[in-house]
Design brief:
Blueprint lengths: L1 H17 L49 H9 L3 H5 L7 E12 L13 H8 L5 E7 L2 E2 L9 E2 L10 E14 L2 H14 E3 L12 E5 H15 L5 E6 L9 E5 L4 H9 L1 H9 L26 E5 L2 H22 L4 H14 L3 H13 L13 E3 L4 E5 L7 E3 L15 H9 L3 H16 L9 H19 L8 H18 L8 H15 L16 H22 L3 E2 L8 E10 L13 H10 L6 E10 L4 H10 E9 L5 E9 L1 H13 L13 E10 L5 E2 L5 E3 L4 E5 L5 E7 L2 E5 L5 H13 L6 E4 L4 E4 L21 H32 L7 H30 L3 H5 L2 H28 L12 H16 L10
Parallel strand pairs: 1-5, 1-8, 2-14, 5-10, 7-9, 8-12, 15-16, 15-19, 18-20, 19-22
Antiparallel strand pairs: 2-5, 3-4, 6-7, 11-12, 13-23, 17-18, 21-22, 23-24, 25-26
Helix pairs in contact: 1-26, 5-9, 10-11, 12-17, 13-14, 14-15, 18-21, 19-20, 22-23, 22-25, 23-25
């Protein structure tokens, strides 16, 4: 026992002595700053504008050596990430080609306004060409009014709201010649018909509707002729006003007056049902091509002016076709025109409108046909949209409350800006000059004033008047010439104040006024080279620039819903039709299954396959489902202020989506609602719960369908004309609650890929979503101004980009996390050789990921989204491969740290030898042999 105690005391004594020594590190840890150029950390000074920059400076990762310098570089780097010169990715840029096509701005359009490339570039370079991809958080609207946006800013997000991915927009401005302007002016004149057919009165207040079906053919033909389909095209129209058709807008289908005429005319309905021939008035254009350019310039800003010879062939074909249409309609009465239009719809390519009119005409009940809005903007089915600055005035949006409502002043107006300056008459000019003189000299009153003050006041009046009404005019006013002569006289009078008989203050005022007049060029005929633009032109161009910026933000590069949306090869739509009573067969359901199937299929990309399964669930036989429905059904008193100013309080029955989702999730956990592909990697199941109810029923008070995180909810009832909270040109928008297909497709697109209504976009300044209803147009599920539900190519591309960006974002997160681990892994001399055995594989896997990033960015910039989709699975595997390689390397290095790096190096000094002697002495005393003690009994 004593010997054990002695040895224990000796052990602690050794520990005490060793504690006075200290271990010295094997190398210093210095952090070296990487200087390698990184495509994916581009800041304001190094943004790329061409593809060439995207293919450089990544082979530097291979440069290292194994000699003494290699060991020194390795240890001096401080950590593995610095040694490999790897930086976490801050941002990635995807190029986006955009064409702004100007028609009627060559000096032959409305008010003969001519747009110069220098001034356009001056304003367009001020537009931000870098757009961050943004996501809109989940919008809660159950407990708030429908016109308020309520977002929970504390909710956690799988992917950041402001993404790592940015869009680098390359703007190519194209000015069309006079021939194209004449074609569109002729088309608007011929294809316009009166909005109100109840009377024959035609005056300046009469509204005209331009047939958008035929204009669609015209725009699509021009895009195909010039081969502009490899970019996004925004047309800006400035056609001359037709004297008899000053107010007009664009519409698909019939006006409200025409629909009422059709409802009342039973003979016309019968004639339509019996007709089988396609009318000759359909605008048919020969397909010809003459590419405007070989490849999009892909620069920050480029300008092209087309020659008339470039478009002469297309213009001639269009003029001939329009003349044929004009001949066809000439002399026809209202019934014949409506008959021809309805036949175009029934025999046309728009399946949504065809099915709507077809079913209503067959049943004889036209209560579900409602007039679409007259608009001055439109989103086409392909990669084009247009803005007509001469159309209107028009408005739409929420009837009461709301933000970003489309008003008559939402678009720039040539007449009210440029025209207000250019078209003032001689009499109006004299009246305005007299008003200015009276206003100025009213300040003087009856008091006496010095002559110099009166002269200066007169100069101020003429200067202001000249800037407003004389400068920049093509046809000079006679009054301006008279003022020019008067200004010369004033200059002579001011020079006469140079004599010493005048007060020093008066002489000083005269000299300052003369200096100010020296640089004036208010009345001369000389042409000024793009320095001095009128306030009207600058105001117009600023408004135009803001409008085009909005088109890019809402149409071309919209925000998407918050969430991660992955690409699946197969989409399985699980349709659950919940009825009050049992339905024996799908054909007995009051749902157009073919139209629904067609619409859901249009949401998919060409490489995706749609599968459908139908389930009929009667509430009378499903007690659990009936309980879920009853718990979620609620009622609310909703105050309404209608367009005509009438106040109304309505009681609305609706389904609370949050409660219903919770109840349905419980049923799903029990397995009663699970599909056969619930856990498949290549197949996504989309459960759509379609509630059919006899009484008017909505979702969350105001909607026909709602997209949730794991399902889509749709409600259908038997009301054919429901007055919604939206208005269009002073009239309430009516919904047909019997056909919620449009709302269902909008909700399904949000669930699949995050598509949002066109008026919503994320604002970084507000840190929430903002609204701009000017872009809620087009015959697609995301607009409010049309009943059509076929998805546009703009939206198909947004779906593809949503899948691509989700994969890129998750890849960046994986790579950044792996690089962060390498930053935390310090470099030591002992780990050098072991790391070198893994370095090449690590670098190769990183280069593979970066190569895929570059490849995806390149093909996406060329709008070859299908080629990019094929690389997504490869990128996922490559990113995981790089992370696994980093983890393997770090795991391999850790045993080295445990066994070799932790050694004690004792420093020898003057106290070391005495310490050892003391230790040896103590050991000898403790361990020396002892004589055995005698045993005493």
């Amino acid at each position: 026992m004593d010997r054990r105690l002695d040895r224990l005391i000796c052990f602690f004594l050794l520990l005490f002595i060793a504690a006075r020594s200290y271990a010295s590190p094997t190398g210093a840890h210095k952090t070296a700053r990487s200087t390698v150029f990184s495509l994916f950390n581009l800041k304001a000074k190094s943004r790329f504008w061409s593809e060439d920059v995207m293919h450089s400076d990544f082979n530097d990762l291979e440069s290292s050596n194994d000699g003494k310098m290699g060991v020194l570089n390795y240890t001096n780097s401080g950590n593995i990430a610095n040694y490999l010169k790897l930086l976490e990715v801050d941002s990635m840029y995807l190029p986006v080609p955009v064409n702004f096509v100007f028609i009627g701005f060559e000096g032959k359009g409305n008010h003969e306004f001519k747009l110069h490339p220098e001034e356009l570039e001056r304003w367009f370079t001020k537009i931000d060409h870098i757009f961050g991809h943004t996501r809109v958080p989940h919008i809660g609207e159950v407990l708030t009014p429908f016109y308020k946006i309520s977002i929970d800013k504390m909710q956690r997000h799988h992917l950041p709201l402001v993404s790592h991915i940015n869009y680098n927009v390359s703007v190519h401005a194209i000015q069309m010649g006079e021939k194209i302007t004449l074609v569109f002016e002729k088309a608007i004149s011929i294809l316009a018909r009166r909005d109100d057919v109840s009377g024959d009165r035609e005056d300046e207040d009469t509204f005209w509707q331009v047939d958008m079906d035929m204009m669609d053919v015209l725009f699509s033909s021009l895009v195909e002729y010039l081969q502009l389909g490899n970019a996004y095209n925004i047309f800006i129209l400035n056609p001359k006003h037709d004297g008899q058709k000053a107010k007009y807008g664009y519409r698909k289908g019939l006006s409200e007056s025409e629909i009422n005429f059709l409802k009342e005319n039973k003979d016309l309905q019968a004639k339509i049902r019996q007709s089988e021939t396609i009318p000759e008035s359909v605008l048919a254009l020969e397909k010809i091509k003459r590419p405007l350019y070989e490849k999009h310039p892909m620069e920050k800003f480029a300008w092209t002016i087309t020659e008339d010879t470039d478009t002469a062939e297309w213009s001639n074909i269009c003029v001939d076709a329009l003349n044929n249409v004009d001949q066809f309609y000439r002399g026809k009465d209202t019934a014949d025109i409506i008959h021809g239009k309805v036949m175009q719809i029934l025999k046309g390519k728009n399946e949504d409108m065809k099915q709507l009119f077809g079913k209503e005409l067959i049943s004889g009940d036209l209560s579900g046909i409602h007039a679409e809005c007259l608009t001055d903007t439109w989103i086409g089915k392909d990669r084009w949209a247009f803005i007509d600055l001469s159309a209107g005035p028009l408005s739409w949006g929420p009837a009461v409350g709301g933000e970003g409502v489309r008003t008559e002043l939402s678009l720039p107006n040539v007449k009210k800006t440029i025209g207000a300056v250019a078209e003032i008459s001689e009499d109006e000019a004299e009246d305005r000059l007299q008003d200015a003189i009276q206003e100025k000299f009213a300040v003087f009153g009856d008091k006496e004033h010095q002559a110099i003050d009166i002269l200066l006041a007169e100069i101020d009046i003429y200067e202001l008047f000249a800037f407003k009404h004389c400068k920049g005019r093509k046809v000079k006013l006679a009054l301006c010439q008279e003022l020019d002569e008067r200004m010369r006289d004033l200059k002579n009078e001011l020079q006469s104040f140079d004599g010493e008989e005048y007060d020093e203050g008066h002489r000083k005022k005269a000299v300052e006024a003369l200096k100010r007049m020296e640089n004036w060029n208010l009345f001369s005929d000389t042409h000024e080279e793009f320095h001095n633009y009128t306030v009207a032109r600058d105001t117009f161009l600023a408004h135009l620039g803001a409008t085009l910026w909005g088109s890019m933000r809402h149409i071309i590069l919209p925000s998407i819903a918050d969430g991660a949306f992955h690409f699946y090869e197969k989409i399985s739509f699980q349709l659950f039709f919940i009825t009050q009573e049992k339905v024996r067969h799908n054909k007995q359901l009051p749902v157009d299954l073919e139209a629904l199937k067609d619409g859901l299929s249009s949401l998919l990309l060409p490489s995706q396959k749609a599968m459908f399964s139908y389930h009929r669930l009667p509430l009378s036989e499903e007690p659990a489902l009936a309980m879920a429905f009853s718990v979620a059904r609620r009622a609310a008193a909703v105050p309404l202020l209608l367009v005509n100013g009438t106040y109304r309080k309505t009681i609305r029955t609706y389904l609370d989506s949050s409660i219903l989702q919770h109840q349905l999730q419980r049923l799903n956990d029990q397995g009663s609602l699970k599909g056969m592909h619930a856990h498949s990697r290549s197949t996504l199941e989309v459960p759509i719960f379609w509630f059919l109810h006899s009484e008017p029923l909505l979702v969350d008070k105001h909607y026909q369908a709602k997209a949730l995180s794991d399902m889509v909810i749709v409600v259908q009832s038997e009301t054919s004309s429901w007055e919604s909270h939206m208005q269009c040109n002073g009239n309430s928008l009516l919904w047909d609650l019997r056909r919620p297909i449009k709302a269902a497709l909008a909700a399904a697109s949000e669930h699949l890929a995050g598509l949002l209504p066109l008026h919503l976009v994320y604002s970084q300044a507000h840190e929430t979503a903002i609204e701009d209803w000017a872009w809620s147009v087009g015959c697609n599920p995301l607009s409010i101004t049309s009943q059509g539900w076929h998805i546009s190519q703009f939206q198909s591309d947004t779906v593809a980009r949503s899948y691509i960006i989700t994969t890129l974002e998750e890849s960046i997160q994986l790579v950044n996390s792996a690089i962060h681990h390498l930053v935390m892994e310090h470099t030591t001399e002992q780990t050098f050789k072991l790391f070198k055995s893994q370095e090449r594989e690590l670098v190769n896997k990183y280069n593979h990921v970066v190569g895929l990033w570059r490849r995806i960015a390149t093909v996406t910039g060329e709008l070859r989204y299908m080629d990019a989709m094929r690389l997504l699975y490869v990128l996922e595997d490559a990113s995981k491969g790089f992370v696994d390689q980093v983890n393997t390397t770090i795991t391999l290095l850790h045993p080295i740290h445990c066994t070799r790096q932790r050694k004690v190096e004792v420093e020898f000094d003057m106290t070391t030898i005495p310490a050892f002697l003391i230790v040896l002495g103590v050991l000898w005393l403790v361990l020396r042999p002892r004589r055995p003690k005698p045993k005493i009994n």
